[in-house]
Every structure is written in C-alpha cells, then in structure tokens.
Design brief:
AAA+_ATPase; four-stranded antiparallel sheet; ATP binding; P-loop_NTPase; ATP-binding; 229 residues; six-stranded mixed sheet; transport; binds adenosine-5'-triphosphate
Length: 229
C-alpha cells in the first residue's frame, strides 16, 4: 500500500480576466469550491468557459487576479512564481491532452524528469517509476522512445510521470481528449484506479461524459462560476 494523502483544495472568490477588444472579459468571476482530500472531481462546462484557465491557476502556472487558492493549507496566492514552481514540482502531478512527453527522452527518463528537476531522483524514485509503468501495462517498455508508442501508451507514460513524485494533487486537462473511445476508457480506468489507490486528490477537465461518470463529483463552470451538477 502506498501512503500518499491527497490535499484539500480550497478556492475562494477566484477571479481572472483577459483583455478583449477595448475591455476585459471576466472568465472566472468569483469561483469558490472545496475539493476534499482524495476526491476525484470532473470539471465540465461549455467550450471557452474557463476550465483550462482555472486548472492553470490551481497548478500555480498563472496567478489569479483576485481571490485565493489553497492546497493542503498552502496559499498559492501568497507565493511568488519561483515558489509556485517549486510547490508544483513537489506536490502536483499534471496530465495534458497531448501527453507532452519529451521526444528525446526515453519512457523512463520522461517519467523521472519532474523529480530530477526537483532534485529528488534517488533509487527509490526510479523503482517507483518502473512499478508505475508496470501497473500501467508498460513493463519492459522503459527504454523506448515516446514516438514508438501509441497515443494511449503515451498517455499512460504521462500518468506515470504525473504520479511518480507522489503528488497530493493530480490535475488533468482533457486526459482522454486525444484518444479513441476504447483507448480513452482504458486510460480513464487506469488514471482513476491509480489515483484512488494512492489517495491523491484529482481534478479532471473533460468534455467526456464517460470520464466524468468515473469521478466522485461533477462541477460545472458556467458564466464565470461553479455549480454542482
Ligand atoms: N492567454 C490568454 N489571453 C487571452 N484570452 C485567453 C487566454 N487564455 C484563455 N483565454 C480566453 O479565456 C476563455 C477561456 O479559455 P479556456 O481555455 O480556459 O476555456 P476552456 O473552458 O478550457 O475551453 P475548451 O473547453 O474549449 O478547452 C476563452 O475565451 C479564451 O479565448
């Protein structure tokens, strides 16, 4: 049993606007929610409503214009960019629609990269990376190049990379959006099963009802705010 406790995520009055024409468009207009530790939440909503924007704010990639984002008691909005990057590397796993694997690194090197960047690549890390790849059906594929893998296999590598550092929070932006139906279902099952096993808190942006159904909870972002649905 792996001991990883997910963090509680608290969003309070989060706002974010982008320039539009001569004015600004308030994409997020006071978003508040609490994600329970170890919960899996699907974030849905119409195209352009701000789902990726919100995910990027929670990841600390961008700061919000207002409000606060707290992960496991750490207020991200109180951190500068360097500290947010360090926090993200240490505590947050990210999965993207287009996998974002580095083509010049092998499968295992891709999985280990975030921890190398964080100075945490010891023997235990490599062991966990290999175990995760095996859990994801990629045992024996560690030395291959990403481009030799199918889309579903590449996304499994990205899931291993996201979980290898024992994150407290996993953020996934359309993780099955670039996969065909059957592959998408298998990848979704793996992601949910491993997240539940590790007890990691998960927020998944998705247009897929199949994926949203696997979550414990569904939040809809519409007109700048979140509703339970
Ligand atoms: N860097 C930016 N500069 C200006 N406008 C932006 C920027 N990023 C996003 N936007 C705008 O903010 C709005 C929300 O974008 P976002 O990508 O967060 O939506 P989304 O809900 O994830 O959409 P989709 O489901 O289509 O991926 C869109 O109107 C988009 O054009």
């Amino acid at each position: 049993m792996i001991e990883t406790a997910g963090s509680e995520v608290q969003l309070s009055g989060v706002t974010r606007a982008y320039p539009e024409g001569d004015g600004v468009r308030r994409v997020l207009d006071g978003v508040s929610a609490t994600l329970a530790p170890g919960s899996i939440t699907a974030l849905v909503g119409p195209s352009g409503c701000g789902k990726s924007t919100l995910l990027n704010l929670i990841a600390g990639i961008d700061p919000p214009d207002g409000g606060s984002i707290s992960i496991g008691g750490t207020d991200l909005t109180g951190l500068d960019e360097t500290a947010r990057t360090r926090f993200r590397r240490r505590h947050i796993g990210l999965v993207f629609q287009f996998f974002n694997l580095l083509p010049t690194l092998t499968v295992e090197e891709n999985v280990l990269l975030p921890q190398q960047l964080d100075g945490r690549d010891d023997a235990g890390t490599a062991q966990r990376a290999r175990a995760l790849l095996a859990d994801l059906g990629l045992g024996g594929r560690e030395g291959e190049w990403p481009e030799h893998l199918s889309g579903g296999e590449q996304q499994r590598v990205a899931i291993a990379r996201a979980l290898a550092g024992r994150p407290r929070l996993l953020l996934a932006d359309e993780p099955t959006g670039n996969l065909d139906g059957e592959t998408a279902e298998a990848v979704a099952d793996s992601l949910v099963a491993l997240a539940e096993r590790d007890g990691v808190t998960v927020l998944l942006v998705t247009h897929s009802d199949e994926l949203a159904r696997r979550a414990h909870r569904r939040l809809t972002l519409r007109a700048g705010g979140l509703t339970e649905a």
